[in-house]
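Protocol step 4 of 5: obtain the predicted structure for the target chain.
Materials: sequence only (see below). No template structures provided, no constraints applied. The aim of this step is simply to have a reference model before the mutagenesis design in step 5. Sequence pasted as it appears in the construct record:
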Amino acid sequence: MVEPVVQQVTPLVYPGNPLLPPPIALFPVTTFGPFTEWSSLASDRYVERVAAAPDGRVWFSQGEAPLCRLDPDTNTVLYYGLPAGSAALAVAVDATGHVWFSDTGRAALGRLDPTTGDLTLWLIPGGQQPFALALTPVGEIWFTDREGDLVGLFRPHTGEFFLYPLPSGSHPLFLALGQDGAVWFTAERGNYVGRLAGPPLGTPPRPLPPESFVVTGYAVSQSRNTAKLTISYTCDGSAGVPIWLGVEVLREGQVLSRFSAAPAVIEATGSGKASLLLTYQGTGHQSSDALRILVLFALEGPGTVVKEIVFRATWIP
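Step 4 output (C-alpha cells):
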C-alpha cells in the first residue's frame, strides 16, 4: 500500500478591499437556437475552465488574467485580480461561495472570497502544474498535478497536503469522485485510468450528542431581501470539528425556497459567535414566520435542527 507524503504549509494571504468593488464589463451576447455565447473581451487570452456557483453565477479562468464571474441575467462580468506570478487553470465553487482554483504559475491551490476580495494561496510541496480539482462534501480538495506526477488531497482547515506519487511520466489530468470515496483520474502519458481508494462520500451524518452544541443567544436584522443572523453558542467538540451552521426560512412549518446563506464554519470548541448572511433571491414579495438553525457535518450534507426562532418578516426583491 502506498502511503501519502503528508506536509503542512502556511498559507499566503492577500487581503482584499471590500470597499473597492472589482472592475466590471458588459459582455457581447450571441444566441442561436438553444445556445448562448458570451464573448470574452480578452482577445489575447483563452477561456480555460468554468464552474457554476450556487447563486447562478458562472466563474471562469483565463490563465494569468483575473478570475472572472459572469452574471448571465445581466451579461456582466466582474474581474478579480490574482497575485503577481499566479495563473489560474481549474476552478470550482464550494457551498459557501468561495472560489477554488489551481495556480499553475506558482504551483499552488488558491481560494478567493468574492465578498471580501481576500485571496489565499497554499503552495503545493514539490508541486509543478496543478491541473484539476474536485471538492468533497466536507470541504476538502482533491487535485492532480500533471508535471508533478501526483494526486493530492488538501485539507484547508489544517493546511495539510496528502500527496500520492504516481509512476514517473504518468501526467495525471482530470479526476472525479465516486460515492464510495474513490478518486478516479486519467493519466495522459501513462495512458490509463486510475483509481485511488478513499472514505465514502455522502454517508449519513453522525448523531449530534445532547448538549454538544447549544445556541445560547441570537440576533437578527433584516432589510428588504437580506438578513443577518448572529448566533452565540457553546460547542464541546463531542460531535467533532469542524462543523457548519446553516439556516432555513419557514412559513407555517414549511421550508421556503429561493433563500440562500453560505454556511458558517466552526473549527474550535468553546464559546463563540457565528454570523450568517441570508439572501432572498425570488422575484416577488415573500413572507416568513420562523428561522431554523441547523448543524451540518458536511458542507453539502443534511443538517440537524438545534434551534427554531420566531421571525416574522416580509422579503422584498
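Step 4 remarks: The domain at 213-315 is CATH 2.60.40.10 (Immunoglobulin-like). The longest strand covers residues 303-315.
Proceed to step 5.
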